[in-house]
Amino acid sequence: MKNGTKIGIVAIQGDYEAHAKTLDSLGVAHTFVRTPADLAGLNGVILPGGESTTHLKVMTEEGLFDALKKFAAEGGAMFGTCAGAIRLAHEVRGPAQASLDLIDITVLRNGYGRQLASDVHLGPTSLRKEPLEMVFIRAPIIEAAGTGVQVLAKDAGHPVLVQQGKILASTFHPELSAETTVHEHFVSMTT
Ligand code: GLN
Q1: Which end of the chain has fewer surrounding CB within 10 Å, N or C?
Q2: Please, what is the Cα angle at 44 between 55 and 155, to 5 degrees?
């Protein structure tokens, strides 16, 4: 993909390297984000999967929590996968925890069970004709989505890929599949 966009990947813990590899395969410029200063000049930010409680703690300590809210308020695009989707949600349950409140969804952490519920599914998506590969790892369930939220893919009756304006969230891990459809969609949202 040829475009001038530059994407930041929040690199606290978790599978941020996998997002970097996917963006490399698309030829999209990227950088790792660890402090508010790292957000300068970016068009979009990816919040990777991992352990959302750890991410939240470090983000708050580093001032990234407030900086990311400001980034979104100024029109920056954001994409959260799994723990990243938890951080973008309006409301988090199981247990409740603070979140950026940038997309009108309620998520239940570890909604499919704590350890064993890791699975690969194929499911329909409005992003393309062919089904999408979805890798779930201790994923949250999106229990509710507001009317302003577009559902781009569902699995087992629950939304699993949702968008509201320039905010995209998936409960699965597109960065762990060989295909790049979801990242291409996010890149198109940043330009
Ligand atoms: N279960 C993790 C959490 O609640 C998310 C797991 C993941 O990102 N793969 O933070």
Answers
A1: C
A2: 70
